[in-house]
Amino acid sequence: MSADILDRIAGIIGAKNIVTDADDMVPYLKEWRDLFRGKARAVLRPGSTEEVAALVKLAAETGTPLVPQGGNTGLVGGQIPVAEGRELILSLQRLDKIRSVDTDGDTMIVEAGLTLQRAQEAAEAAGRLFPLSLASEGTCTIGGNLATNAGGTAVIAYGNARELCLGLEVVLADGRIWNGLRQLRKDNTGYDLKDLFIGAEGTLGIITAAVLKLFPLPAARATAFLALPGPEEALALLNAAKASAGGTLTTFELMPRVGLEFVLRHAPGTRDPLSEPSPWYVLMEVSAQSASGLDDAVEAFLGDALEKGLITDAALAGSLEQRGAFWKLREMLSEVQRFEGGSIKHDISVPVHATPEFLARAIAKVEEMVPGCRPVAFGHLGDGNIHFNVSQPIGADKEAFIARWDEINHEVHAIVADMHGSISAEHGIGRLKRYLLPGVKDPVELDLMRTLKATLDPKGILNPGAVL
User: pTM of the entire structure?
Assistant: First the structure.
């Protein structure tokens, strides 16, 4: 890259917002699991949509590839540049303003670099709820959440990020700004363009702001940590909970004993909430707009589930502190696996009714392939999304185990395909899974995706090497 281009970039965002020092760029060039490391010519930190547009226009003029990046919490490498070092990283973290909050219309307009936690806090300060919830919410950004169509723990009640967005502001590959920040619940004036960019991982345009849906802030929450024999009972319990609680069932998370043991072993301040170990657990939460009666209703439901043999033990949070302790057990599941050696990851979804069958088949297959391996299957049973991770056998060679990543992925994904599921439920495709698309996408669908990319980004400058 010529010094002239860097000078022109400095004229747009100021020299202080260009990072070229190798040490200073390290946090932008690797993701937290250290599966991907990249190279870049520089990191650019624009502070407004207009600056993003000017940078993209310059990139289009010079044929310079750009890799958009939010909080760098992605799990499939879509935010990391390829190792060639030609790319510029476009960090959106300075675009972090809350532009407006409308409590009458239950909407909030925020910029893409705002962290999810700050969006939640702004909503709560206005007496509203923004329900998207992820373990990385203190670091991940709204732009990244939308670019990957993030899911999280409340999808069962509120839907994915796509369902929580009414409008977008997007910088297109030629530098034009599309202002689609409409706060409308109903708008049938042609194509709904925002859905092209949600889940596209920055390959079709760069999201710079969004209109988010807000909801009434619950007056009460009942959070229970439950022990049960297996996924079949968990599914039966889910159906019973939906029949009993309806739309107020906001969380239903499944986790295995081995995962809980990892958390108890490696996460400070955690403890087993139940007196006896169990093969499987569920973290269940019910919300209500009335401050009274919820705990009693949930206790009655759990008593009935205990009598029917759906659960074997239960603990109902009696305080905010205990609720936080229950949630910590779930939220730490991803992070602690690295302390147990190599872990081969899968982010899959199958029809909800098929989750017990998937778990039985997939666990049996990986244990057959790698005797002694430790399947850590956990996640959002309420929407059929299971994070099917496989930790190495105790004492095994980590590199040798990780070398079987593709082989194990192939077998697990074959089970998913046989059950008409998805190989990427909420993490996206990024660089990790792009080679899998031809095997799982309908050929016509894949051709339409390629046509869309060529149309909206004809020079291929937006996040090259990701998704397609």
Answer: 0.93
